[in-house]
Design goal:
CATH class of the largest domain: Alpha Beta
Number of strands: 6
Number of domains: 2
Strand content: 15-25%
Oligomer: single chain
CATH topology of the largest domain: Beta-Lactamase
Radius of gyration: 19 Å
Largest sheet: 6 strands, antiparallel
CATH superfamily of the largest domain: GAF domain
CATH architecture of the largest domain: 2-Layer Sandwich
Number of helices: 7
Strand order of the largest sheet: 3-2-1-6-5-4
Length: 215
């Protein structure tokens, strides 16, 4: 599944981000809820994968917090190189039919997108799951899931920087300045591709941030 170098790189990344075994956070919870709404699935998780388990940073429709690596579909899905990793019916897929989630929880449909951090390391997935078999994802569902995966990584990056900023004693003003810089970069990217509606929304956020800075 992974060679030792990839595992070591992933563990190092997870340690840098300091996200394993942390408490629930609204930003990640909102992403999994949005994933279920956009794909019409009852289950979604943001899954981190280390050298022995998959651990859910956020989830909808899942009671437990983790699974052993031997029962992790996400450990396979995070290495997918071309689009979402999709299983129409895990119960008839020899790779996964005996996994705990399939046998005990009735997982049938699975679609997962790798979470790839800034240095290219794959640390887990954003996935959606159904207890009914499905025939793949619609194109708009694939795009939505990929966008949410990018948002997850962005939230991880910001979370890491906030933790580091607290440790370094950065002021609120410094964080506002950094946030505005990131938003302006996003606005420039949206302008480049002509995404006028999202750009208008983002410009509204920047204006609100300016108002907060000037108070």
């Amino acid at each position: 599944m992974d060679d030792n170098d990839e595992v070591a790189k992933r563990i190092d990344a997870l340690e840098r981000y300091g996200i394993m075994d942390t408490s629930p956070e609204t930003v990640f919870e909102s992403i999994v809820h949005e994933a279920t709404l956009l794909t019409g699935t009852p289950i979604s998780t943001i899954t981190m994968v280390d050298d022995r388990r998959q651990w859910f940073k956020a989830s909808v429709g899942v009671e437990r917090q983790e699974d052993p690596l031997s029962d992790s579909i996400c450990a396979v899905a995070m290495n997918e190189k071309s689009g979402p990793f999709v299983i129409d019916d895990a119960s008839v897929d020899d790779r996964f039919s005996q996994f705990r989630g399939v046998v005990e929880d009735g997982i049938r449909f699975y679609a997962g997108v790798p979470l790839i951090v800034s240095d290219g390391t794959r640390v887990g997935t954003l996935c959606v799951i159904d207890t009914e078999a499905r025939s793949g994802l619609e194109e708009d569902e694939k795009l939505a899931l990929q966008a949410l995966a990018r948002r997850t990584v962005a939230a991880m990056e910001i979370r890491r920087d906030l933790v580091k900023g607290d440790a370094d004693g950065l002021s609120n003003e410094a964080w506002l300045s950094r946030a505005r810089s990131l938003l302006e970069q996003s606005a420039a990217a949206l302008t480049q591709i002509g995404a006028s509606a999202p750009l208008a929304q983002l410009e509204g956020v920047i204006a609100s941030l300016d108002a907060s800075t000037n108070q």
